[in-house]
Write a structure and sequence with these properties.
mainly beta; UDP N-Acetylglucosamine Acyltransferase, domain 1; 10-stranded mixed beta sheet; 28 strands; about 5% helix; about 25% strand; globular; binds coenzyme A
């Protein structure tokens, strides 16, 4: 699915932009926000950006930066309502982002990304091009994603790196090669995990901290290590501290049939 396809479906696919006419370009008080209020000084909102009501754009930040080879205003950027964009974030044009986006300080979102509702992109995380992110996805601090597909309700721990090019660099075929990993719904990826190109992490799987995922991981599996190997099923996890009979008996994990 290209960004263009998604833009054609806007707003049905990615949140409402109620009352959000394209805003004027400008830095600081020159530019009007979607409710007519001025953006704070140091907030740059580019020509053609559509952003829904009640956005909290925190200075300094850039919303709608032109990607390399484009001029400002050439590519659309649509962001739903109630976005919180923290200082030093850059969001490029050419993206479709749903409601209630949260970015941490220094987050970077390049062009050709599609994000659903209630997505957070943590401090210093980098979304390169071509990511397709579902709803209620938490991307923690310091992560790197390119050409990744992530379904709903996925947790990505701090400093997780997704790779998409088996033989860096300059391979002329890499975009058609293995591509980025796919993470199915409800999966959790532990801190400092590295995921190799084209790998699929199954629904409700749990990847242990510091793993290197080299092969597909089945649904519901707990996999750890380098290379990551399945050690058990999520339903076999315990809570050694005794707070719970077992982990993940809370929403959203408890809301559907166990995988
Ligand atoms: C995988 C995890 C959930 C523990 O699962 P568990 O089945 O309860 O693990 P146990 O403590 O029973 O350990 C089982 C075995 O796996 C090993 N193991 C556990 N976690 C591991 C990891 N991340 N990497 C490598 N080995 C690991 C243990 O050493 C043990 O090995 P052994 O049988 O040879 O002694 C946990 O270790 C983990 O990594 N959680 C993710 C934490 C995280 O990144 N959170 C992000 C938010 S901050």
């Amino acid at each position: 699915m290209s960004t263009g396809d998604v833009l054609a479906g806007w707003p049905a696919d990615a949140g409402d932009v109620e009352g959000g006419p394209p805003v004027a370009a400008g830095v600081g008080s020159a530019a009007a926000g979607p409710t007519g209020a001025a953006w704070p000084a140091g907030v740059h909102v580019a020509v053609g950006v559509q952003i829904g009501p009640d956005a909290d754009l925190q200075s300094p930040c850039i919303v709608g930066k032109a990607p390399r080879g484009a001029v400002e205003g050439e590519l659309p950027l649509k962001i739903g309502c109630r976005a919180t964009v923290r200082p030093f974030t850059t969001i490029y044009a050419g993206n479709v982002i749903g409601d209630r986006l949260q970015t941490g300080q220094g987050a970077s979102i390049r062009e050709d990304n599609v994000l659903g509702d209630d997505v957070s992109v943590g401090t210093n995380s980098v979304l390169e091009f071509g990511n397709r992110i579902g709803n209620r996805v938490r991307i923690h601090s310091g992560c790197f994603l390119e050409m990744v597909t992530i379904e709903d309700d996925v947790f990505v721990g701090p400093n997780v790196v997704f790779t998409d090019d088996p033989h860096p660099m300059n391979c002329p075929s890499y975009k058609d090669c293995k591509g980025g990993p796919v993470v199915r719904r409800l999966a959790r990826i532990g801190a400092n995990t590295t995921i190799l190109p084209g790998v699929e992490i199954g629904e409700n799987a749990l990847i242990g901290a510091g793993s290197v995922v080299v092969d597909d991981i089945p649904a519901g599996a707990v996999a750890v290590g380098n290379p990551a190997r399945v050690i058990k099923h999520v339903s076999e996890l315990t809570c050694p501290q005794g707070f719970h009979e077992r982990p993940y008996q809370w929403p959203p994990y408890s809301e559907g049939p166990p995988v």
